């Protein structure tokens, strides 16, 4: 029985297999037929050969499969090794660095003016701090000063990187981070030399920029008219010196000067301005007490521009608070307070912060403190 | 007149021939009859199974599976290339469906890869063994 069963099931199996085969071939034939119908329709409708062109074009656009080359046959870093000659400075520059170099070279990019200003400011800054130590260009001390410069350069190599501005911003809370790093970080030697400029250029520069000539480098300060390193007196002096006595058109301080009856001599104004002119320079110790008064003075301040006042660094933190009328009185008081440090401050008189006062922007005390450190 | 006397031998002979013929006839028909019975059983079974395949949607599923697998393995492009040859042979304007079918189907059947064939057969057999009576 078993044998029969097995043979029967064997038969069944073969039958099953045959059946399965038949079903399978039916399915395959259906597939073939479907494809033939599709092709025939494509031929009759005319879109069968659409994805092909003539043999030549097919060869042109064939997929490339070589090493070092993409599938279109283009080389990846083809321009890496090429060098271009800069039309400005006639140096040969790597191709990938050419555009940024051109920006700096022509002075036309977004950053170039910023860098230039900063350089000048910092070179003025360092030169000013040196001249504070000794009033003249003293070669003996150059080593010391240059040494500090070099050290400064080494430490801060990338003035334009964002991280610099980020770290400094929160320290001082100033709106423009440009000012702060320029003061004490970067030392550059480029700047504007007034000897090479014509009168028109001088005038244009002087109307837009501070322009005070640094003793040390003989270059003009390129910071704004309100740069805290120089007083209005200095600016006026420079203008008188460069443009002629009647041509000084310093927008801020002329009238103030007249009011005070102060006669600014040519050349080094700062030496003669060691006396206080009634500017309120608030020492850090006095800041709390005098803040209220300065606030008042701000509100009452006349519309005219402020007369700059020399500052002694040690005493004055905030630059800004000066008001003509009330400052006199306060200036006297301050002078008394700062009398002790007067001698030392005289040395620093030339240095940085004399703040030009604008009603809205008091220079924070932190500035002068750092100046003092220099 | 001849003598109407028939020999008994002749009669016997006649009778035997007739008998044989009758038997042959019957036997032959019987075998044919049997064969038809078997065949019809099988074809009945076939018809029944095919019907089941269609009714349960299994045939459609198998068709789709086969289509997908053939595209995946590149069979479709191969057969299309064959079609192109037939077209170039016969001329673009005068190609008929029959030309294509006749030119392509036998080769197409042969071009199906073994893996696809095996998988499909497996599925069919599974279905059959499940649903055959």
TrEMBL record, chain A:
Extent of Acidic residues compositional bias: 132-141
Compartment(s) where it occurs, according to its Swiss-Prot or TrEMBL record: Nucleus
Subunit annotation: Component of some SAGA transcription coactivator-HAT complexes. Within the SAGA complex, participates to a subcomplex of SAGA called the DUB module (deubiquitination module).
Entry keyword Zinc-finger: yes
Organism: Cyprinus carpio carpio
Family: Belongs to the SGF11 family.
GO biological process: chromatin organization; regulation of transcription by RNA polymerase II
Zinc finger (SGF11-type): 84-105
UniProt main location, coarse: nucleus
Protein keywords: Activator, Chromatin regulator, Metal-binding, Nucleus, Transcription, Transcription regulation, Zinc, Zinc-finger
Cross-referenced Gene3D superfamilies: 6.10.140.1270, Classic Zinc Finger
Residue ranges of the region described as Disordered: 116-176, 247-266, 277-374
Protein name, per record: Ataxin-7-like protein 3
InterPro entries: SAGA_su_Sgf11 (IPR013246), SCA7_dom (IPR013243), SGF11 (IPR051078)
GO cellular component: DUBm complex; SAGA complex
Biased composition (Low complexity): 116-125, 279-297
Known function: Component of the transcription regulatory histone acetylation (HAT) complex SAGA, a multiprotein complex that activates transcription by remodeling chromatin and mediating histone acetylation and deubiquitination. Within the SAGA complex, participates in a subcomplex that specifically deubiquitinates histone H2B. The SAGA complex is recruited to specific gene promoters by activators, where it is required for transcription.
Gene from which the chain derives: ATXN7L3
Keyword Oxidoreductase annotated: no
UniProt domain comment: The C-terminal SGF11-type zinc-finger domain forms part of the 'catalytic lobe' of the SAGA deubiquitination module. The long N-terminal helix forms part of the 'assembly lobe' of the SAGA deubiquitination module.
PROSITE patterns the UniProt entry points to: SCA7 (PS51505)
Biased amino acid composition, Basic and acidic residues: 320-336
HAMAP family, A to Z: Sgf11
From TrEMBL, chain B:
Taxonomy, superkingdom: Eukaryota
Organism of provenance: Cyprinus carpio carpio
Protein name per UniProt: Transcription and mRNA export factor ENY2
InterPro entries the record matches: TF_ENY2 (IPR018783), TF_EnY2_sf (IPR038212)
Subcellular location: Nucleus, Nucleoplasm
Gene Ontology CC annotations of this record: DUBm complex; nuclear pore; nucleoplasm; SAGA complex; transcription export complex 2
An individual GO BP term: chromatin organization
GO MF annotation, one: transcription coactivator activity
Function field: Involved in mRNA export coupled transcription activation by association with both the TREX-2 and the SAGA complexes. The transcription regulatory histone acetylation (HAT) complex SAGA is a multiprotein complex that activates transcription by remodeling chromatin and mediating histone acetylation and deubiquitination. Within the SAGA complex, participates to a subcomplex that specifically deubiquitinates histones. The SAGA complex is recruited to specific gene promoters by activators, where it is required for transcription.
One family name in Pfam for this protein: EnY2
Gene name in the database record: ENY2
Subunit organization: Component of the nuclear pore complex (NPC)-associated TREX-2 complex (transcription and export complex 2). Component of the SAGA transcription coactivator-HAT complex. Within the SAGA complex, participates to a subcomplex of SAGA called the DUB module (deubiquitination module). Component of the nuclear pore complex (NPC)-associated TREX-2 complex (transcription and export complex 2). Component of the SAGA transcription coactivator-HAT complex. Within the SAGA complex, participates in a subcomplex of SAGA called the DUB module (deubiquitination module).
Keyword Transcription regulation: yes
Keyword Manganese: no
Keywords for the protein's UniProt record, in alphabetical order: Activator, Chromatin regulator, mRNA transport, Nucleus, Protein transport, Transcription, Transcription regulation, Translocation, Transport
Homology family: Belongs to the ENY2 family.
């Amino acid at each position: 029985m078993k044998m029969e069963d097995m043979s029967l099931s064997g038969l069944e199996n073969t039958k099953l297999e045959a059946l399965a085969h038949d079903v399978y071939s039916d399915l395959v034939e259906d597939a073939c037929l479907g494809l033939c119908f599709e092709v025939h329709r494509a031929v009759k409708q005319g879109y069968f050969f659409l994805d092909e062109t003539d043999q030549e074009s097919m060869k042109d656009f064939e997929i490339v499969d070589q090493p070092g080359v993409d599938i279109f046959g283009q080389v990846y870093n083809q321009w890496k090794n090429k060098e271009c000659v800069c039309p400005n400075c006639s140096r040969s520059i790597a191709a990938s660095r050419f555009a940024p170099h051109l920006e700096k070279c022509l002075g036309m990019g977004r950053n170039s003016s910023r860098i230039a200003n900063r350089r000048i400011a910092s070179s003025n800054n360092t030169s000013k701090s040196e001249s504070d130590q000794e009033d003249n260009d003293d070669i003996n001390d150059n080593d010391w000063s240059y040494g500090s410069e070099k050290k400064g350069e080494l430490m801060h190599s990338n003035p334009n990187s964002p991280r610099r501005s980020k770290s400094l911003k929160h320290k001082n809370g100033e709106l423009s981070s440009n000012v702060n790093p320029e003061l004490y970080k970067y030392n550059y030697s480029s700047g504007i030399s007034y000897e090479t400029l014509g009168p028109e250029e001088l005038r244009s520069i002087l109307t837009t920029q501070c322009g005070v000539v640094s003793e040390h480098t003989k270059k003009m300060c390129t910071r704004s008219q309100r740069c805290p390193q120089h007083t209005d007196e200095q600016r006026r002096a420079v203008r008188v010196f460069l443009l002629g006595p009647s041509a000084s058109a310093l927008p801020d301080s002329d009238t103030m000067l007249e009011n005070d009856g102060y006669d600014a001599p040519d050349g080094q104004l700062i030496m003669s301005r060691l006396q206080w002119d009634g500017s309120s320079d608030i020492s850090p110790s006095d800041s709390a007490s005098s803040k209220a008064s300065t606030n008042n003075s701000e509100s009452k301040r006349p519309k005219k521009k402020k007369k700059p006042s020399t500052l002694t660094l040690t005493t004055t933190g905030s630059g800004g608070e000066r008001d003509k009328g009330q400052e006199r009185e306060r200036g006297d008081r301050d002078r008394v307070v700062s009398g002790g440090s007067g001698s030392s401050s005289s040395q620093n008189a030339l240095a940085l912060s004399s703040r030009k006062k604008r009603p809205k922007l008091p220079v924070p005390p932190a500035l002068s403190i750092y100046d003092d450190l220099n | 007149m001849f003598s109407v006397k028939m020999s008994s031998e002749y009669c016997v002979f006649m009778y035997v021939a007739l008998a044989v013929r009758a038997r042959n006839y019957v036997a032959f028909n019987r075998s044919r009859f049997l064969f038809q019975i078997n065949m019809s059983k099988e074809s009945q079974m076939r018809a029944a199974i095919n019907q089941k395949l269609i009714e349960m949607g299994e045939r459609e599923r198998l068709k789709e599976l086969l289509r997908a697998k053939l595209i995946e393995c590149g069979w479709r492009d191969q057969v299309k290339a064959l079609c192109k040859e037939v077209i170039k042979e016969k001329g673009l304007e005068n190609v008929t469906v029959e030309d294509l079918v006749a030119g392509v189907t036998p080769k197409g059947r042969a071009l199906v890869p073994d893996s696809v064939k095996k998988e499909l057969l497996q599925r069919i057999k599974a279905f059959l063994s499940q649903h055959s009576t």
